[in-house]
């Protein structure tokens, strides 16, 4: 029977020692304005590397050094001179070398409309970019409507087709760069309301050109990265199960509903691009579904829908529960969000709702939680002491990431 300690092979040939994945966590440990990894970031990854994880996904790495999400993001310098580029490469190589025991996947991202105003990577009045422009269907409509947080985000404009092509190239160059620096793979971030999610959502993609077909940009990126980096490089994608904003209900159809998300999933797995894994999450800055505090596995219903609709599911399920299974057509499925106990993990795996599970906040507080889960079938974590409603009266993400033990 599959349990969280059962190894699993990915299509690219990498075998994970267990089913536990450290999900992406935007560490904010780089330099102001976005930079290559710092010694603090390297120390953090050294701790995760010995934490017993099957795979480690980095926090989002911004592919465009002007458009970063938060001021201290890990960022690839898109306009670096050759000399500077070499210097940068050594820093990324140092990060990869800090993780010798675990497959390391770099999460590549462009924040689009969700680039905060004060990133110090661009002038605060510079417009953000998105699939569609401001006004109806802009990047993050309810952010703009919120008096508290809208000043944090500049308005956004629609990308031209030429700019879309340039962004696709940034993703390809970023993947090649990380491969050269010693990473085992990349995850293309197309969830949580960032730029690629803005293309994937009918609420934010009102384009009339080829990129108005929601998955076009993502499939083009995945195809180009596969072709550039080869079959043995791990390529994954993070997708949202829905936008979960106030508008994405059946009364006012403007966000990504679960059926749209299923369409996205199917368009990607049925495309001609072989990818290794899909991680499921959900929400955006409009509605932080992925940072919910509610008990339970946040996106289980969506995983069930996927399993029911893909593969004529049975063949996949039978094979995926074994360590030495034949590799099937579907990518491995990672379910992330709200997973806190070994019992839950074993249930999800035995019901074949996913092939691996992702953990975010538990990994902030307990870097070796994966080892504890694998070794102890009773193990669970309690994060309630770390959850806060507000800091100095400002509503927070509902959680204070405790990464200070690395500093
Ligand atoms: C501090 C923090 C930073 C995060 N940064 C990222 C990120 O860079 N990229 C991403 O895809 N998800 C990010 N997430 C979301 C997590 O990967 C994960 O989807 C979410 O925390 C739900 O999983 P959990 O309940 O196990 O924490 C972040 C979450 C937290 C708490």
From TrEMBL:
SUPFAM superfamilies assigned: FMN-linked oxidoreductases (SSF51395)
InterPro entries referenced in this protein's UniProt entry, alphabetically: Aldolase_TIM (IPR013785), NADH_flavin_oxidoreductase (IPR051799), OxRdtase_FMN_N (IPR001155)
Pfam families: Oxidored_FMN (PF00724)
Organism domain of life: Eukaryota
GO molecular function: FMN binding; oxidoreductase activity
Domain called NADH:flavin oxidoreductase/NADH oxidase N-terminal: residue spans: 6-367
Keyword annotations from UniProtKB, A to Z: Flavoprotein, FMN, Oxidoreductase
PANTHER family per UniProt: BINDING OXIDOREDUCTASE, PUTATIVE (AFU_ORTHOLOGUE AFUA_2G08260)-RELATED
Family per similarity comment: Belongs to the NADH:flavin oxidoreductase/NADH oxidase family.
Protein name: NADH oxidase
């Amino acid at each position: 029977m599959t349990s969280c300690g059962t190894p699993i092979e990915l299509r690219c040939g990498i075998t994970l020692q267990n089913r536990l994945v450290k999900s992406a966590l935007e560490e904010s440990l780089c330099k102001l304005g976005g930079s290559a990894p710092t010694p603090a970031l390297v120390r953090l990854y050294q701790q995760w590397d010995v934490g017993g994880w099957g795979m480690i996904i980095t926090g989002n790495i911004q592919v465009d050094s002007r458009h970063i999400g938060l001021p201290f993001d890990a960022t690839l310098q898109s306009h670096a001179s050759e000399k500077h580029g070499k210097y940068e490469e050594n820093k990324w190589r140092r990060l990869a070398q800090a993780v010798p025991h675990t497959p390391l996947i770099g999460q590549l991202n462009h924040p689009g409309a969700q680039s905060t105003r004060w990133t110090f990577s661009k002038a605060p009045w510079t417009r953000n970019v998105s699939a569609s422009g401001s006004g109806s269907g802009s990047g993050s409509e309810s952010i703009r409507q919120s008096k508290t947080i809208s000043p944090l985000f500049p308005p956004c404009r629609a990308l031209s087709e030429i700019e879309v092509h340039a962004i696709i190239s940034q993703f390809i160059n970023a993947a090649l760069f990380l491969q050269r620096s010693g990473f085992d793979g990349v995850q293309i971030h197309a969830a949580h309301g960032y730029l690629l999610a803005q293309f994937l959502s009918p609420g934010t993609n009102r384009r009339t050109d080829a990129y108005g077909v929601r998955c076009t940009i993502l499939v083009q990126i995945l195809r180009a990265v596969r072709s550039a980096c080869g079959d043995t490089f791990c390529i994954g994608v993070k997708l949202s199960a829905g936008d979960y904003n106030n508008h994405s209900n059946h009364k006012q159809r403007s966000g990504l509903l679960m059926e749209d998300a299923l369409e996205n999933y199917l368009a990607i797995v049925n495309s001609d691009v072989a990818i290794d894994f899909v991680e499921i999450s959900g929400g955006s800055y409009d509605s932080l579904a992925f940072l919910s505090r509610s008990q339970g596995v946040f996106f289980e219903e969506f995983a069930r829908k996927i399993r029911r609709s893909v593969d004529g599911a049975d063949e996949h399920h039978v094979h995926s529960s074994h360590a030495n299974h034949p590799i099937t057509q579907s990518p491995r499925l990672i379910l992330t969000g709200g997973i806190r106990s070994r019992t839950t993990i074993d249930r999800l795996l035995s019901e074949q709702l996913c092939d691996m599970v992702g953990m975010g906040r538990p990994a902030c507080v307990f870097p070796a939680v994966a080892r504890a889960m694998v070794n102890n079938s009773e193990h669970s974590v309690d994060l309630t002491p770390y959850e806060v409603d507000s800091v100095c009266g400002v509503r927070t993400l509902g959680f204070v990431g405790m990464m200070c033990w690395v500093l």
